[in-house]
Every structure is written in C-alpha cells, then in structure tokens.
Fold each of these.
Amino acid sequence: MNPEAAKALVHFLTESLHPDAIKRKAAENELTKRGSEPGFPVLLLQLLAHQDVPINIRQAGAILFKNLVKSHWSPRDGPSISDADKTQIKAVIVDLMLSVPPIVQKQLAAALELISAADFPARWQGLLPDLVKKFDSKDFKIINGVIATMNSILKRYRHMMKAPDVLLELKYILDILQAPLLQLAQYTSSLIDTTTDPAALQQLFTAVRYILKIFNSLNSIDLPEYFEDHMNDWMTLLRKYLLYTTTLPALIGDTDDDSPPGLLHEVQTAVCENVQLYIEKYEEEFTPFLQTFVKDVWTLLLSLGAQAKYDSLVASSIAFLSSVSTSVHFGLFKDAETLTMLCDKIVLPNMRLREVDVELFEDNPLEYLRRDIEGSDSDTRRRSATELVKGLRKHFEAEVTQVCSAYINTMLQQYAASPAANWQAKDVAIYLVTALAVRSATAQQGTVSVNQLVPINDFFATQVL
C-alpha cells in the first residue's frame, strides 16, 4: 500500500465526517472523483485491513467501497472498475470481510452481495469453494460470517423460475455445497447437544438459522437429488429444532410483550417455512414425514402465547397446516373433533384483535388498513388463520361451516349482551364469516363465488347495516 496515497485517503475520509458542511462536501467530491481511478478500490480495501486506522474511518471507507461497487462494478454508463482491480478485490474480500469489526464487516458483506449478483457464479467460480473451505475452521465467528454471506448470495434462487440456465447454476452450486452443508448442520447439532454456555449456544443457533435459510434457497426451484437421498437426515434435524425447548434468554429473548423474536423462534420459523415448501412442492417425497410434522407443528402452535414476538412463527406454522389442508393429505383433518379443535384453539385466538393491534389502529390507521385490506399481511396471524379456514373449507365445506357457525353465533350473543365490553367478539365473527363465505375472488371483480351454506345477505342486514 502506497503510504502517501493511504495518508491522503485517510485525510479525505476524515474530512467526509467533518461537521462543517463545506469541508464535508469538498471531501465527498474528492472521494467521488478518485473512486473511478484505477487502483483506488483496492487501496480502499487495503486501508480497511489496518487496525491502527480509527474504526469510524474504516467504517466510512467500507461504506464508500460499497457505494463504489454499486455504482461502478457493472454500470450501465459511466466509468467501470477495471478488470485488474476486480480480480484483486475478489481475491481478498472474503478473508478481509471475516477479519474486520462487525460495523465494517456489514458494509463489506453488502458489497460482496452486490458483486456476486453481477458475477456469481459464471465470473466468480472461486467464491463458493473459498467460502466452503472456511467450514473447516470450526470457529463459529468465522462460520457464521461465511454462511451469512452464502445466504445473501443464494437467496435470489428462492424467487427464480425453473429454467435451464438457472438449473445449471444450481447444479454447480450443489456439487460444491450440498454435502458440506449437511456435514456442517450435523456438526452444529452435535455441539448444541453438549454445549451449556449461553453465548456459545447463541452462536450455534445463529448458524442453524442461516443453514436453514440456505436449505430453503437450494430447494426452492427443484428437489436436488442429494437432498432427496438425505431427506431423513435433514428432517431429523428440522424436527429436533421444532421440538427444542429452553429457558435461556439468549435463545428465547426477553419476556416483554414488545420484545423481538428469540433466536430459537426464528429457527423454528425457518423450519416451518421449509416443511411448508416441501409439502407444497415435493409432496410425494415428503409424505413419510408429514404426519409427524403436522403433530409437532400443532403442538408448538398451542404452546405459543399472544405476544407479538411469536407472530412470524405462528403465521408460518398455520401456513404449513393450511398447505396440508389443501394437499392430498387433507384427510388428516377430517374428524369433526379435529376441525373443532382447529377452530377453537388455532383459528379464533389468532383472529382476535390484541392490544397491540388496537394500538396500531389508533396510532397508524393507514398502516392498519394497508395490512388488513390490501393483503400485504400474508404473514400475520389474522391472514394466516383466514387462509387456514379457506383451506379446510376446500374439502370440508359443510363441516367447517357448521363448526364455525356455532362459534359465530356464540360471539354475536356475547356482543349483544354487552356491546361495549364485547365488541371484539363481533369483529372476529365478521372476519370469520368473510373467511367462510368467499370461495373465490379476483382483484378486478372482487368476490365471484360464495359458500351457499353461509346466509350472507341475512348476516349483512342484521349484523353490519
């Protein structure tokens, strides 16, 4: 690294943080001008590696590097980072990202994601092998950085269509990653069984969360042969985390109503998302495991409270049951007792407005309406419960209508007895009637087919008008 060039770079980065707007703007303009010069991005990375440079300057440099990559790696017009610089950047960015402090690492990870979006895998075939080699370190600070990067690179495959070029990319990725990923998952699981230190468990469960997200990315387009052959291994691991219980705050978070989801709950959410993917896309192959997972997800659902931190887990769990209800295995829910329990223990509690929902309506009514009307709340409790009713109604319309109608009548009676105290009962009743009544709808025409067993006109006239 050229000492004079590095000194000048530190100066301008320092000035770019100056409280004086004129000095700050001048420094920003100078850095922007130099950003297109050959060798500058490499110099910037070299500077980030020096621990004697103040952390705020390294953070500013990392942000600048990320912005240079965004603007000049594959520009539609304007100057581009030279091929020689690109080669050097690719050679060092992974190791550098794993060695710098978290606030710098975050920016380099974002830059790496931008580079991989443009060049991986065709023009950066060394990336994935280099990342996989890091698994051998057995250091979960390094491993978590690696698999977090893998997740950011591979998540695009969750939304791609099945096409020959995409399948070729996935084959290349799977040949390198599929076996090491399973080995890492099993190794992590074995450590969880023997570890009691909360901080170490937190690192291990962070790894599990990323592993399960990568699992989803690799399985979203098609079922890889390796995953089919090792489905029992994977499902054993998924079930382990679905059933895992602990009281450690490091894994379940705080007990406050407004606390964020715990790490364990995020892992269990990822498990539910993966088994939902399998029942929807690989139903035949997943059949041997289905009944066990239905029982386990149901049990987990009944154990969760109404706190907002469980919302994503509850929604993904209900979504899995909804997918089962519309599959060829709908018979798992055919018993009248089962349908009653689903309505009483899962549907109704998750349709009922909570204090946090009421507060959202009072504080931000537009956001509440956006979620409730426009359908953007597909991962909320209410929407998931509605979809479960619709799924059950597909094969058990008469039975589900009969069960839910009894609850509707009870809630309307509660409201009639004390409207001020029991207005939420009527709200749930209206929501449940909507879920029962609408068979099909389109964005352009609205409802086009209705459940003839629901007296919609009478209900509207007596309860809504």
Amino acid sequence: RVDMRVVKLFRSTALRSFGHQLRHYVSRDIGQHTHYSHPDLIAENEILPGITKTEFADRRQRLMEELSKTHYGMLNPKHLVIIPAATLRYMTHDIFHRFHQNNDFLYFTGLQEPDSVLVMDCANNLPQHKSILYVTPRNPIKEQWEGPLIGPDDAVSFLSVDEAYDMNLLAKHLEERYSKEGYSVWYYGEREIPSIISDAVTNTISKGLLQLPGAKVTSMHSLLHHIQNLRVVKSSSEIELLKKAGKIAVNAYKQTIPITRPGMYEYEIESQFEHSCRIQGAQRLSFVPVVAGGHRGCHLHYTTNQLKLSDGNLILVDAGCEYFGYVSDVTRTWPVNGTFTLPQRELYEAVLRVKNTCIECCKPGVTLNYLHSISKEAFAVELKALGIIPMDLDGSVLANVINGLYPHDIGHYLGLDVHDCPLLSHNASLVPGMVLTIEPGVYIQKSFGVKRKEFQGIAIRIEDNVVVTTSGCEVLNSGCPETVEEISKLML
C-alpha cells in the first residue's frame, strides 16, 4: 500500500496545475452507480436501480408529514431535521474497512458517500421544507487517491435536493441560520446515534445548535421511530430490489449445496456462497454468515466457520447478500454427504412443515408475535410426534422446553437492514408492503435428555423472506431448494 504521507510532497503544485482538468474529466462520474456509468442498471431519472429521484423526494416529504402530526410538529412552525451519513471506519491506523452507508441517510438521499449530512429545513409550518445536503468538496488530490466525489454542484442535479454546500460550511450555517431562530431540532436520541456516524459530525451539530451563547433551539427530539415507521412499508421499487437480493441468494445456494463434501472446511462453503453472490452483482454479504457443521449449528450465531465438515452430519448455513442497500437473509440446512439419515430427515421435514404453516398464516392484520405463537404450537405437536419430548408435557413446562429447543423468534423485519426497523413492535399488525423473515428452527444440544438419542446434536433452521400482500404473502427467495427431494437431487 502507498504511504499517504507522500501526498504532502506535491499537494500544493498539483492542486494548481491539475485541479481544473480533473474536475472536467470526472464531471459525470460521481463515485457511485449512475445512468452515465451503468446505463444497463440505472435509468436516467433514477438514483438507485428502479428508485427515482421523485421517490426519494417523496420519502423526505412523507417524513415531514409524519412529524407534522406530532405534538411538537403542531406546536412550533420551525423545524430542522438532521440525518448524517456514515463515516469511514478503520481496522488499523490507516487501513480502512469497506465503507457502508448509514441506511437512514441512504433511504432519504441515495448517496453512497461518507461524511455528508442531510438537513431538512422547515422555516414556516410542516410539511413544507427545503432539502439541503452538505458533502465533501471536490478535491483533485483526494480524488486521485480515492476516486471521484459528487461535490455540491452535482449533488443538486443528481440527487434532486434544493441546495448543496461544502461540508466545511455546516458548522457556520447551523450557527448563523438556525441556532438563534427558535427551531425544533429532530436528530437521533443520545443513545440512538449509530456508531458509524462520525463523532465530529455529532459534536458539530451539538455545538452549532445548543452550546453557543444566545442559542434559542426550542427543543430536541428523536427521529428514529418516525423514520422506521416509513421504512417498514416498502414501495414496489424497494420490493423489486429485495427480490433481486433474494434471487441472488437462491442462485448462491444452488451453486453451494452441490459442492459440499465430507472433509471440506466451513470457510470453503462460505467462500463459494460469497463468490456466487458477488459474481451476480451483489455489493457484499449482508452479514457475517453462519456456516455450522454438525452440533455447531446449535450455537445460533456461530460465525467462526473454520472447522472440518464430518460425514453423516448436517450443515446449517444462514447467509444473504446486499444489493444496492437492500438485503436478503436466507437459511438452509442440508446433509454434508448428500443423504439425510432417518432422524435428520424426520426432524428436517417437521421444521419445514412449521415454516410452511407460518407462511400460510402470514397475511395483513396478524403480527410477528402471533406467527411466533403459531410456530411454537406447531413445534409442540411435531416434537411430541417424533418422541423428542414426552406426549404428556403441557403448560409452562412444555413452554420452557420448546423455548429451550427453539430459543429465537419466528422472524424479524427485513429491508435496508437485516434486522430492519428494530423499534417497531412485533405486536404491530402486518400491512401490505412489509417484508419479514420466517425462520423456525430446532437445536438439540448433545446434552439434551431425549429418549431417541439419535436426535442429539442435530440443528436445523429453514428461513425464507416474504413480503406481505393484500391477501397473504409472497416468498422473495422462491426457488431455493428446501424439500428433502430437491436437496438430494441437487447433491447427486
């Protein structure tokens, strides 16, 4: 890697001699996918594939409409909404992680650049507002090293905001335009600020609005719940991106399952899955995958993925990918040698029946907690029938045993985040456009006392992603092998 200190040797002369030429050369390359760089993916009026400038503007408008219905929204005519981008994080002093955007910022702007800030200024009664972006200014030296930046001029035209400024002006504008004007400020609560947001940005906001002499900010409020109320219901264009992420995961499983053999290592399975996702256009995996052979599947978030796969065991893989911000989260379990043993098959088909029952019950008006209760009732029937738990077990004793064998919820909301909109209650009624996972599982530790000892050490989870429709739900990862027959045929 190049030592960044050498930049200091030629910075000043390069700025003078090269700056204008570089600015002209990259005038349409802004550092992320656009119609100009990827016309096969993004149409002329889109910011992300299928998501237009108009949709992003509508999202900002709907947020302001949401705030206008609150007590403080009706009480005060002046409001300032502030949503920062993420910052670049480092593994060591100068070696950085791959950048990942703050998904709230991405949802309202579509910009994939770090260290930017979206400000929505309502000077006279919600929901009227101006959308203002503060971005890193164009800099030929920085761009020579790191690639092109959008800059304030292109931010206005490409992202369709009202105004855009050099990020270095944020503190000055907060002080001069807003700090003494009686605004209500909407930001993250003190304990809600994502760790990916720069401390410098948060300190600038706090200092610029609250700590200056004569500051007259009337109140500070948390945005997060209001943002998640919007994000949880997906538009048709968002659903298409989630379907694409699901389809990529399906194809990755179809390419990963057949190569599995005893003696392979878990990391080989992980590598195949990731390669398949990336080669199909996914930007990254959506989380560190679980690739767990045998009894290691009983550890729900096992991600070491370093051990050898043994003949006669199952392998549980929980993985997904991210496609232009939107994610998939799909789990499949299959035999390492291609053949289910009798107890493996019996338990696998029981889990599959529970999963399919929950999908049949998923429709508008029900809740995630209701679906979870359905899954627990179904597991009680299935596990009794298999002799894993006694037939006469009932009441709180039965509930405790089921919770021990099935210790997680039936699912979670899904979207820009894997665990999307975590503030939204699982008692909220599902409505069309919500996307969630359905992921029942059974994990029988080797120490679990069971009459049929051949079940000990078996871990099985099957997970699909579904979107709620007007009459039920649609599986977004349809076609992913799940029956014993489909998996066995794939592994021949």
Amino acid sequence: ALGERRAAVGVSVFRALLRHDRSVWGTSRPFFMEIDVEHQAARLMQMLGCAFDQLSDMDSLIPTLQSLGRRHIMYNVMPSHYDVMRSALLAALADELGDQFKPEMSTAWATVYGLMAKVMVDASAAGPADDEWLYAFV
C-alpha cells in the first residue's frame, strides 16, 4: 500500500518519534545517537511489512517478534516506548499519505502495530536469550 513512499514514511516515523516524546531518545542506549536513520527506518518498515504479510501465518510471525522484543531490551527500550512509537508511526503515515490515509487504514496499522508491540513487550519480560546478546552489538 505504501509502495514508493515506504522509505519516506520510515524516516518520518523517526522524526515524529522525536516530536512526540524526546524522553525516548535519552533512555534508549546511545542507540539513537549512533544509528543511520535511513537504515533503521528501512528496517522498521521491512518488519511492519513482514507483519502485515504474515498475519495469516502467526506461527512464523510470533517467534520473530518475540526475538525482536527480547533484543530491544538491550537498547533500553521500555514498554512505554512502544506506545510512543505507535503514535509516531500513525502521525508519520498521516503526514506522508495525507487524505489517502483513511480511518480504516489507521485502524489497520494501529491494530497490526498493537499486536507486534504486545508480543514484543510480553517477550521482553523474560529477558534476552543468551545468543540474542550478540545482536546488541551488530
């Protein structure tokens, strides 16, 4: 649905994230100071695309999201940050898509993101698996 706008939406998410809640930047390991925003935006949009594509195959999607949630602990991502990210995502989609971002699209994106966030937060409560510590430094 996003097509060529996917990259622009991803970058806009990170801009919106900063506008919505600057506290996220200070608590998330020096992660946001060191990242290539375009690269990280592409990864975010790729994961969101995978989530939409795999909604009919939850047996594959859930373990991927659980691992991702556990790895995000190592970046000091807190459960409250997922709500901030949801707001930033929806704001970025609205900014980039304008009138094309219909209420039913907003609901669909919020629902999929909410599912992703819940699985990731629940998995993060258990802490990272031993081999997932390696991803924090890659």
